[in-house]
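Is this the right way to post structure tokens for a design question? Let me know if I should format differently. Anyway, here goes:
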């Protein structure tokens, strides 16, 4: 069984503003001086993947929420273009029956950025950000924005209780093919792994906002998944 989903943001998976997202993509590509046709072709690819019907959470609403986090924390980013590209591509491939989504997403990102003539140094950092979501760990000290990017992706864990419940339900829908007991076991394993970390967030700005509430949410869900779980 593949990893039961463990990433997210702090907003419900509501319908995003399509025109805002399209404008945002265009602005990024203009800033990077990408060939217009290549940028348009990649936008179609992004829409196609993130709008797949099986995506109840890892969709364009998720992308939009992470972009808003990036805007809110732009003063702390060393290279905003790296983070924005990583946000757009990090879940472009998402199949809950596959264990290689991050590697596949990084490969799609690499090909897309090459077509858009993105600077090789930027592209390399984007790929490393995407691959770091495999374990949600800072695996590369040479990517200065990696800790904050990973924190954006886990912000949902510290969302208000009602928003977290929407997230939890959406993730279950993405794994509807998994029998209930198997899902409970797999999901509980993921949540325990997060709770066992000394800190869920790598940056002081995100930790101060989300760490305490994230641990509360994880403990509450674990109690639902496993009544024998001892909250600590």
């Amino acid at each position: 069984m593949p990893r039961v989903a463990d990433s997210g943001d702090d907003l419900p998976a509501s319908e995003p503003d399509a025109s805002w997202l399209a404008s945002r993509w265009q602005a990024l590509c203009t800033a990077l001086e990408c060939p217009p046709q290549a940028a348009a072709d990649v936008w179609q690819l992004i829409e196609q993947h993130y709008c797949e019907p099986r995506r109840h959470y890892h969709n364009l609403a998720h992308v939009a929420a992470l972009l808003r986090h990036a805007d809110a924390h732009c003063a702390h980013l060393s290279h905003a273009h790296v983070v924005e590209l990583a946000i757009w591509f990090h879940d472009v491939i998402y199949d809950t029956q596959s264990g290689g989504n991050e590697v596949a997403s990084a490969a799609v990102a690499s090909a897309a950025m090459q077509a858009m003539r993105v600077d090789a140094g930027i592209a390399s950092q984007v790929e490393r950000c995407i691959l770091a979501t495999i374990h949600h760990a800072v695996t590369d000290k040479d990517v200065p924005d990696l800790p904050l990017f990973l924190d954006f992706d886990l912000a949902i864990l510290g969302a208000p209780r009602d928003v977290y419940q929407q997230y939890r339900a959406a993730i279950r829908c993405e794994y509807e093919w998994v029998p209930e007991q198997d899902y409970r076991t797999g999901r509980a394993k993921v949540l325990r792994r997060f709770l066992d970390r000394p800190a869920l967030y790598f940056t002081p700005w995100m930790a101060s906002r989300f760490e305490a509430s994230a641990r509360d949410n994880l403990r509450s869900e674990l109690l639902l998944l496993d009544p024998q779980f001892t909250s600590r």
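Format looks fine. Someone answered above. Worth noting: Confidence is low (pLDDT under 50) at residues 1-13. The chain is about 60% helix and 0% strand.
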